[in-house]
Amino acid sequence: MPAQEARERFAEVVDACYERIFRGAVAVAGDRHLAEELVQETLVTAFKKFDHFSGNSSPFTWLYGIMLNKYRDHCRKKRLLRRLGFVRAEQNRMEADNARASESVLPDELASRDDCGVLVEAVSRLPFKMRTVIAMHYFDDLPLDEIAGVLNCRVGTVKSRLFNARKRLHHTLKGKLKDGAESDVPRS
């Protein structure tokens, strides 16, 4: 594929997938600023590797997998910085950025901004594997088989992670949502 044609095809893929990838990054990272960085790094990597994209999965699935790998890299780096004692300055910067960027990217169906905050906090406290399947299934509306493809695991594993994540969320959110919304929390 000629370079110009490849750039145009990549631009089409980005246009089609950007919003969903960004929503997924916000849901997984729990931080809008970090999500922006993850998506930017994802697109840079995808552009460099676009000629290697085989098409065995959808472009969205491929980009989502890259984004998850970028998030894992970020977590590894953060753990290393914490061990070396450098995290406090970075954490203060991120808290200030989050205060400025308080706009939330969540589905319209959520009842109130307060409930959204409670839900986002609860999801962000889930272990990475559970948080990822919740984000992909509920925020990105991905079917279980596509989630399994992105995570390179079996559909049964995805179902198990969803079950356990919903169970934890139900326990965590019980009585915390307004207007009886706790009844909307998926039960295990």
Question: In words, what does this structure look like?
Answer:
The chain has 188 residues and is mostly helical. It has helices at residues 3-29, 32-49, 59-84, 87-100, 113-124, 128-139, 144-151, 155-173. It is built from eight helices and no strands. It has two domains: 1-104, Rna Polymerase Sigma Factor, Chain: A; 106-188, Winged helix-like DNA-binding domain superfamily/Winged helix DNA-binding domain (Arc Repressor Mutant, subunit A). The protein is globular and about 55 Å long. Helix 1 (3-29) crosses helix 3 (59-84) and helix 2 packs across helix 3.
Shape: globular
* Count of the separate structural domains: 2
Number of helices: 8
CATH superfamily (homologous) name of the largest domain:
RNA polymerase sigma factor, region 2, helix turn helix motif
Which stretches are low in confidence, meaning pLDDT under 50 for 5 or more residues running? Answer: 96-111
Tell me the distance between the termini: 49 Å
Largest sheet: none
Q: In which range does the helix fraction lie?
A: over 70%
- Average pLDDT confidence is 79
Radius of gyration: 18 Å
- CATH structural class of the largest domain: Mainly Alpha
Q: Structural class from helices and strands? A: mainly alpha
How much β-strand is present in the residues?
under 5%
Q: What kind of assembly state do the chains in view correspond to?
A: single chain
Number of DSSP strand runs? 0
Helix and strand element order: HHHHHHHH
